[in-house]
């Protein structure tokens, strides 16, 4: 069986580093993108199994990236988790409507991330 891949899309190097450590610990092969445009370029050549997406980023925000990634051939396949400090229910609903599978509040830890990935079927519980 091939190793599952995860793309972490966040403009914060620290957040990417923390998230990378967590998902690598869950057995994922991890790549990183600093904004939505970089992530979209990555996804046009290879779609990851899982995406962790920040909301507010320069160049292209997480919502715009998610909508464009979902429109790619096979773009419905990756599990997408929004990771944000955004707490307003209408914003969370907007992310889910754009194609997010679930939502993770920042700051998150390994247990929270593992449980969310498990809920969306990205890892075995």
TrEMBL record:
Presence of the UniProt keyword Transmembrane in the record: no
Keywords: Phosphoprotein
Domain of life of the native organism: Bacteria
A Pfam short name: Response_reg
Domain Response regulatory, first and last residues per copy: 5-121
Record flagged with keyword Ribonucleoprotein: no
Sites of 4-aspartylphosphate modification: 54
Protein source organism: Brevundimonas nasdae
SMART domains the record matches: REC
Stored PANTHER family: RESPONSE REGULATORY DOMAIN-CONTAINING PROTEIN (PTHR44591:SF3), STRESS RESPONSE REGULATOR PROTEIN 1 (PTHR44591)
InterPro entries given in the database record: Bact_response_regulator, CheY-like_superfamily, Sig_transdc_resp-reg_receiver
Protein name as catalogued: Response regulator
């Amino acid at each position: 069986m091939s190793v599952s891949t995860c793309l972490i899309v966040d403009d914060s190097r620290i957040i990417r580093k923390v998230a990378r450590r967590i998902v690598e610990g869950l057995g994922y092969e991890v790549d990183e993108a600093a904004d939505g445009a970089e992530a979209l370029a990555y996804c046009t050549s290879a779609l990851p199994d899982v995406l962790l997406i920040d909301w507010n980023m320069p160049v292209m925000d997480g919502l715009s990236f998610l909508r464009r990634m979902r429109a790619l051939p096979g773009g419905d396949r990756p599990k997408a988790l929004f990771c944000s400090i955004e707490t307003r229910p209408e914003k969370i609903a907007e992310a889910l409507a754009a194609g997010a599978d679930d939502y993770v509040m920042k700051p998150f830890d390994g247990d929270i991330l593992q449980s969310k990935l498990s809920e969306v079927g990205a890892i075995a519980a």
